[in-house]
Amino acid sequence: MNFLFYISAAIAVLSTVMVVTRPNPVHGLLYLVLSLFSVALVFLSLGANFAAALEVIVYAGAIMVLFVFVILLINPGSEATDREKRWLTPGIWVGPSILAVVLLLELIYVLAFGGGQLSGVKEVTPKEVGLSLFGPYVLGVELASMLLLAAIVGAYHLGRRRAGEGDES
Amino acid sequence: MAPVPVEHGLLLAGILFALGTVGVLVRRNILFILMSLEIMLNAAGLAFVVSGAAWAQADGQVMFIFILTIAAAEVSVGLALVLQFYHRFKTLDADAADRMRG
Fold first, then answer.
1. Cβ of A137 and B9 within 8 Å?
2. ipTM of the complex model
3. Is residue A145 in a domain?
């Protein structure tokens, strides 16, 4: 099923080019989500099902939601409804939609004709990944937990608005 | 059916990484710089998964999970910095913060 890989790779490159060239952050974000989805399908076509699921859940889900939150916080104001109307014009969402439909067709093809499995590639199962993660790599897991703790503390400290500092500019 | 050659997967990772680098260097909007950093980290993870799949070993996906952790930590701190930046300079232009004359 090599063509699955190549179609997803083409969509990944195309949508990443769009991310880098869009002037509006929200449009860029839309294409970035698409790029992450297509990389997830690349993982699926390589037999890395667990990595594909994590890509969708963590990258395209959690991290992109953080970006959306920050854009919401930065772009408040009364002109929001006008902007909303402009965003709902077809020129903006039709490109990502077409690419997303292609990805969906690929996924349906895998589910319908492959039974969720791809022939020709050896799947690395989540069980193997888990055994490896908590066997030889357990020190890395500890380090990752410390990194996440430091990131929580750092993000809280940086995101807090201090009392005295409100309007200096 | 023959599996995808490992060179093609690594080529895809290289292209995505290069696009992310171009984004970091070309864009001046700090949100786009962060997005391009995400693309670069994602491309690094893709290279690990491709190599792991080529040898049918789990290590590639383990490294991908670590990269995912790093990306989450980086983006949370980075977006907190973006908020502070916006409160201070009322803009998202990275050139506004040129006090160090870099």
1. no
2. 0.90
3. no
pLDDT tens track for B42-93? 999 999 999 998 888 889 999 999 999 999 999 999 999 998 888 888 878 8
DSSP characters for A30-48? HHHHHHHHHHHHHHHHTT-
pTM across the whole model? 0.86
Q: A68 is written with which tokens?
A: 């959306």
Q: Which domain holds residue A70?
A: 2-124
- The CATH number that applies at residue A98 is 1.20.120.1200
| Total of domains in chain A | 1
In a domain, A52, yes or no: yes
In angstroms, the Cα distances linking B95 to A28, A70, A140, B68 are 20, 20, 37, 29
Answer whether residue A131 is part of any domain.
Answer: no
Check CB contact under 8 Å for B4 and A2. Answer: yes
